Each structure stands twice: as C-alpha cells, then as structure tokens.
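USER: My hope is that you can spare some time for a protein that puzzles me. I am handing you a single protein, as its sequence and its fold in token form. Walk me, if you will, through where the backbone shape changes along the chain. The protein I mean follows directly.
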Amino acid sequence: MISVYGYSKEEGLQTFPSLESMDQAVVEWYWVDLDSPTEEEVKCLDTYFQFHPLAIEDCLHDLQRPKLDYYENHTFFVFHALHQESMDRQEINLFLGEGFVVTFHKEPSKEIEAVKSMLNRHKNHQELDEYYVLYQLLDKVVDRYFPIVYEIEDHINEIEDNTQNLSMEQLLEELFDRRGELLRIRQTVHPMRDLLYRMLNTHHLDGVRERREYFADIYDHLIKVAEIVGSNREMTQDIRDSYLSLNSHETNRTMQILTVISVIFMPLTFVVGVYGMNFMNMPELNTEYGYFVVWGLMIVMAVGMFFWFKNKGWFD
C-alpha cells in the first residue's frame, strides 16, 4: 500500500490517492510511504523515483545494519524499530532528498502510523518539511525502546528478589532469557547510536544541522538506553554469579555434612569389621559383657567425634 502526503503553501498538507495524482510542481515537499508493498509498488522505487540500485537492493534484503549512505540526489537510511511484545527487529528504510521523503517497510509500522497521525494533527504546517518527518520518525523509533528496556529491568528485579519463590534452575533459566533479550536490544541500540553520531557530524545534511539540538536529543536518548542495557547486563551477571556461588556453597555444605557422617562411622565400621571376623581364637568373643563393652566403646567414639567436629565449627 502506498500513502502519499504533499505540502504546498496554498493548500497546506494534503493526502493524495496515488503518486500520479500528485503534482510535484505544486507541492514544496512530499512524503511517500510504502507499507508492505507489492512487486508492482516496489518497482516505483526505480521507475518513478529512480533511486540508486544498491539502495533498492538493501530495501529488499532483510535486516540490514542501521546505516547512512550518500548518493547523488538522495540519502539512504536504515533504521531498526523493536516490537514491544516479541522484541523482534523491524527494518525501516528511508530515502531523503531535496523536497521528498520516501519510506519503505515490509511490515506495518506503529512508528510510521504515529508520525502520520502527528502530521494530520499538526496545526502550523509551515514548520513541516522533509527533515521534520525524518526527526519525528527517528524520535518515535527511539522512544519505543524505553518501555521494552524498563520491562526487562522490572523482570530482572523480580528475579533478584525471587518474588515467585522459584527454584534455582527456573531462576537461572529466566535470567539467561533476560540476558538474551538485552543482547538483542544492544545489537539494535549501538548501531542506531552510531548512525545518529554520523548524522550529527556530517556536512551533507543541512536540515540536520538546522535542527541539531533535536537530533542531539535523540542521540542522548540512545546513549541513555545503551547505558541502561549495559547496567542491566552487569546486574544479570552479578545475580548469576550470586546464584552460582550460593548453589556452590549449599553443595559444599551438603558435602561437609556427609563427610562428617562418614568420618564418624569409619571407626565404628572398623570395630564392627574386626569383631565380625570368624576366627576361633578371639578372646573378646567369650567375655560375658563383651557385647555391651563394644557398644559402649562405639557410642563413646561417635559422641566424642561429634563434639570434636562441633568445636571445630563444622556445624556452624
């Protein structure tokens, strides 16, 4: 589906039913959005707009890295948006030139729809131009990173407090899931941050220089998101190390108790083994109270070793 917006001083912001119905000689600038385009609609990138073949090829390939390419009569951008539910990356391609913006995306985009609604509600149309559309789209894309990151941060805090009383295995499984999500977000945020840095320091985009403070604000937001992602990954690592240390401590504690029990029973087993031998010439076997004496000896040894280990602090 193709959506066409055009601005002129006489008519203001208008919506056109098709590209052919828009008179480029009348409008000062226009925005064409290709949402889940058909093969015929994709061809207009070449036949109608005559964009560079490499840029068109990047549009058709899935998940290019966020980037900025300069061509003779237009600049090509690749942005990455994030779905809040699945956290999958969505590629948004944008062509920017003198008096036009063309966006291309294979799936419906909430960020694009938000910008369209903003344009329809905007009262002072004279402030609108192609760079304003670029700014608003980038701003919407970056702003939608924050709820995703904050939701993951809340999950990490729940894991740390173990509010659901989960087992160690379940906690570690959830923790590794959160780390994987943070890694996917970082793989999106860092390239987007580099892209904004290039935009702020380029000499090819006059409209970005005129609105430098606005684009710099988006860059600051990306730095903040990157810092939150980094701190949360460090937190997950600390929680993981704490859980593993606690698990190791509990294992060592169990082994310590088992060792104490084994050591206490070792001399008892020795005594029982000695008097369990079937030799004929064993004087103690004929003693009247030998059985009770041996039992008393074993009890004294067991109790004595128990209190000896207790004084050593093995039961603390």
Notes: The chain has a mean pLDDT of 83. The chain has nine helices and seven strands. Residues 9 and 126 are 8 Å apart (CA to CA). Strands lie at 2-8, 12-16, 29-35, 67-70, 75-82, 89-97, 100-105.
